[in-house]
Amino acid sequence: MWSFGKLLLAFAVASTSAATANAAVVFDRTIYYHNTPPDAAGHYRFEFQTTNGITTKAAGNENGAVGVVQYVSLEGIPVTFTYVADADGYRAEGEHIPAVPLHVLRQLEYIRTHPAVDEHRSRRW
């Protein structure tokens, strides 16, 4: 069974390997790896670093997680992003992440503040 920490680790590896997929980068080896599996209260922590420059650290519990991922882009630019995953969803921040257009923010706010439509009741056949 996959734990939340393992899923986040898989996501971090997938997101960083997706950025380097065109370069066909293979993890030569792991330089550092530390994993504290979830305890009885659900608290966990992990971090690792690989020889190709990927570093990630995360910690969390049953209420969510926080973490940071760092790697070097194909252009040789260091990329760092942080994230929070909790009851409010997944939120990543970093200089390379484009800003959300204002109209998208307005749409999301509208959806958040208006109740869902009962489609069955709203249909008039």
TrEMBL record:
<keyword id="KW-0732">Signal</keyword>
<protein>
    <submittedName>
        <fullName>GL24591</fullName>
    </submittedName>
</protein>
<dbReference type="GO" id="GO:0008010">
    <property type="term" value="F:structural constituent of chitin-based larval cuticle"/>
</dbReference>
<dbReference type="InterPro" id="IPR000618">
    <property type="entry name" value="Insect_cuticle"/>
</dbReference>
<dbReference type="InterPro" id="IPR050468">
    <property type="entry name" value="Cuticle_Struct_Prot"/>
</dbReference>
<dbReference type="Pfam" id="PF00379">
    <property type="entry name" value="Chitin_bind_4"/>
</dbReference>
<dbReference type="GO" id="GO:0062129">
    <property type="term" value="C:chitin-based extracellular matrix"/>
</dbReference>
<keyword id="KW-0193">Cuticle</keyword>
<dbReference type="InterPro" id="IPR031311">
    <property type="entry name" value="CHIT_BIND_RR_consensus"/>
</dbReference>
<feature type="signal peptide">
    <location>
        <begin position="1"/>
        <end position="23"/>
    </location>
</feature>
